[in-house]
């Protein structure tokens, strides 16, 4: 997962080249706009059409110059949500503002997310800061001061996701288009080419929260909600084999590869979202395919073991090391 570097400029959403990276400042702007009902999408730190539209609507309401750029006057008009700039003050429990929202996004990208973005430094954010400090070898005080911010901005990530959540591969095959900017557009998941009709298995234990047609380009779409704020999305299916409200485990057949929606050929578009924000699924993917022949029975079937460890300390938690076909 890429490390995000926050720029000092206040012109946060000016026109930019297609390969623009995500920014904690843009995420803080999105948090402020969302609180005002002006940004309907997930917080992703990427300045796009919806972010610029939200800024323009806010500027119009405040009778500012309407340019879609969150400059000093627009930031001032946002009030407490628009200040202070990240790095001006140490952040500790009880603080609120733009810098706290930016901090929450940086923590999330590093894999230490507090569970959402609201610009309020509460117990969850304090614990997230402490977890990051411990992992980075810093003094653990739960306060995001200069050393913690510098580490969040500049230290290289190990690439290993924090927490126990891992996912089985929903189908076999190599990944084609990856996560991030692909061909001048932001790709929110990974594409796995496969023949039309290839069975797609759920990548982990959860509940189907959507199974139907999506008008936004996904075509036939299944969304599975897992614990700890994770969701997995399976798009462009030729046919759906799951129902909303259905409980699934790794390997439960939920559909078949197709090319519905905005596609150029049959493939599975697979996404992982954490509290609504798309994240790169690759670091969390196991090497095992979710839907395969059961060698013990000779038939296609569900896994006999729950596939991903997505909770600690509960009686129904999965094993921390997920293994296919072997009960711990």
Short description:
The protein is α+β, with helices and mostly antiparallel strands. The protein has helices at residues 24-35, 49-61, 72-77, 98-110, 123-136, 146-154; strands spanning 167-169, 180-182, 185-187, 190-193, 199-201, 206-214, 219-225, 230-237, 239-240, 247-248, 253-256, 267-274, 277-279, 285-289, 293-294, 299-300. It has 2 domains: 24-154, Orthogonal Bundle (Muramoyl-pentapeptide Carboxypeptidase, domain 1); 167-300, Glucose Permease (Domain IIA), CATH 2.70.70.10.
Could you outline the blueprint of secondary structure elements for this entry?
Blueprint: H1 24-35, H2 49-61, H3 72-77, H4 98-110, H5 123-136, H6 146-154, E1 167-169, E2 180-182, E3 185-187, E4 190-193, E5 199-201, E6 206-214, E7 219-225, E8 230-237, E9 239-240, E10 247-248, E11 253-256, E12 267-274, E13 277-279, E14 285-289, E15 293-294, E16 299-300
Parallel strand pairs: 1-14
Antiparallel strand pairs: 2-3, 4-12, 5-11, 6-7, 6-10, 7-8, 8-12, 9-11, 12-13, 15-16
Helix pairs in contact: 1-4
């Amino acid at each position: 997962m890429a490390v995000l570097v926050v720029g000092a400029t206040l012109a946060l959403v000016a026109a930019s080249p297609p390969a623009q990276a995500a920014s904690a400042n843009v995420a803080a702007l999105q948090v402020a706009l969302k609180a005002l009902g002006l940004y309907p999408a997930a917080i992703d730190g990427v300045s796009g059409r919806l972010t610029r539209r939200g800024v323009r609507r806010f500027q119009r309401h405040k009778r500012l110059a309407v340019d879609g750029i969150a400059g000093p006057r627009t930031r001032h008009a946002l009030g407490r949500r628009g200040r202070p700039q990240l790095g001006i003050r140490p952040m500790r429990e009880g603080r609120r503002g733009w810098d706290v929202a930016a901090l929450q996004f940086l923590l999330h990208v590093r894999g230490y997310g507090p569970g959402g973005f609201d610009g309020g430094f509460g117990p969850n954010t304090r614990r997230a800061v402490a977890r990051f400090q411990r992992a980075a070898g810093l003094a653990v005080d739960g306060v995001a001061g200069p050393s913690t911010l510098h580490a969040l901005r500049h230290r290289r990530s190990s690439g290993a996701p924090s927490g126990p959540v891992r996912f089985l591969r929903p189908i076999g095959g190599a990944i084609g288009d990856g996560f991030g900017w692909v061909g001048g557009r932001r790709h929110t998941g990974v594409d796995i080419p496969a023949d039309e009709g290839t069975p797609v298995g759920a990548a982990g234990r959860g509940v189907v929260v959507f199974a139907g047609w999506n008008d936004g380009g996904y075509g036939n779409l299944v969304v599975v909600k897992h614990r700890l704020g994770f969701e997995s999305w399976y798009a462009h299916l030729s046919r759906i084999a799951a129902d909303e409200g259905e409980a699934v485990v790794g390997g439960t057949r939920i559909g078949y590869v197709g090319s519905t929606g905005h596609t150029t050929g049959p493939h599975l578009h697979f996404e992982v979202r954490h509290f609504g924000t798309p994240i790169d699924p690759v670091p969390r993917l196991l090497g095992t395919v979710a839907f395969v022949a059961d060698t013990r029975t000779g038939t296609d079937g569900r896994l006999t073991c729950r596939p991903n460890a997505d909770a600690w300390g509960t009686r129904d938690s999965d094993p921390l090391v997920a293994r296919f076909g072997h009960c711990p």
